[in-house]
Amino acid sequence: MANNSQFEKRKLVLPVYLPSFLFSTAEFGIIPSIPVTAIMLGADLATAGFITGLMMIGRLVADLPAAKLVDWLGEQRAMVFASLSAALGILASLFASNLFMLGTGVFLVGAAAAVFGLARLAWMTEHVPIAVRARALSILGGMFRAGSFAGPAIGALVILNFSVQAVYYLPLVLCGLAAIILLLAKSEPDLVKSATSLRQTLSVAKREGKKLATLGVASSILSALRGTRMVGLPLVAVALEIPADQASLFIGFAGALDFAMFYLSGQIMDRFGRAFAAVPTLVGLGLTHLLVGIATDSGTFLLLALLMSVANGFGSGVIMVLGADLAPKDKRNEFLASYRLLVDFGDAAAPPVLAALITPIGLTWAMASFGFLGFIGAGLMLKFIPIYAVKPERNR
Fold first, then answer.
1. Residues with Cβ < 8 Å from 242, sequence gap 6 or more?
2. pLDDT on residue 3
């Protein structure tokens, strides 16, 4: 099995891992520049925030229709299409002369990310044996994390040495490079299907409603807790009056720890079962959200950030793994589209809900309120994760 695992990992570098890293780096690389560009075009702070949020809105809007596109083109060609569409959106943002053009470009990047995300997960579900699925998808999660760090870091260097507008050029090149690699990569052929309709996608969601209402909701809760962690930690640093450079350094340390754990998560899921990663992650994130009040100075803030990263890193890739496990073979893409919509909704809704709670109850209690959700999600995972989501050799 070890040799098979190694072979599978090598086999996935060009068709999935490298393009995913390039796409994620491009996607996250433009995010810090979007509000600055919007303000340069005359937007106020609220409008700039809305335009930045159009990336997530684009992702949500495209989640369900993406199933039809992936069925029609096949997974690998859909990733090529998404990479080129994202490049087009970045190009529109680069040359935007007004807020409408900028918003359209940002929305298109988000929609392309939805298609790319569904296509790569569908491809992995089809081509990776279940015995090594968790490790393979955890590495994919690691590529996403690496891109989320590399993109903003490179963008910051470009702004420092050149200009805000110059930031858009590298992501443009990265999306084009991802498309070229996908076109040249030798892999097993896609299983192109007849294009499904939105009505059929909704019908599959209804048929698979129990999965979506249990593990889909639990995955959405996990996604929400990850979103509040990303938004909440900088707010805690501000509340404690920790200098911005020091807070950024601490959050960077925590992020590095999170990234370092991605393969461990996959090993745990393949060897012991999905629940052994999903439940501790949700319990850990729930507890650390409840313990935000322990952060009273820079030292305890760093401790909080590290604890949150350990909890989060323990479940690296678990959302994708569960989606792949649960997807029915006959309507895989349709199910994954609905599943990803739930996950993306949790990610998109959590930060504004957190912001709305801060005014009436304060940051500590606002974070704690999400902590309680973690235990609900953990209970759902513990009860409903299927028995077959365990490495087959374990049952022999």
1. 250, 298, 301
2. 42
Q: DSSP per residue over 350-389, as a string?
A: HHHHHHHHHHHH-HHHHHHHHHHHHHHHHHHHHHHS-TTS
Which 8-state DSSP code applies to residue 344? H
In tens, the pLDDT along 97-107 reads 999 999 999 99
DSSP 168-214: GHHHHHHHHHHHHHHHH---PPP---PPPPHHHHHHHHHHTHHHIII
Domain coordinates of the chain in residue numbers? 9-185, 196-390
Contact 266, 131 (CB under 8 A): no
In sequence order, the 6+-apart residues with CB closer than 8 A to the CB of 49 are 35
The CA distance from 269 to 292, in Å, is 28
Give the CATH architecture of domain 9-185. Answer: Up-down Bundle (1.20)
Query: Where does residue 342 fall: left (phi above 0), alpha (psi -120 to 50 degrees), or beta otherwise?
Result: alpha
Decide if 146 contacts 259 (C-beta within 8 A): yes
pTM score, two decimals? 0.85
CATH fold group of domain 196-390: Growth Hormone; Chain: A; (1.20.1250)
The per-residue pLDDT for range 337-357, each reduced to its tens digit, is: 999 999 999 988 888 888 888
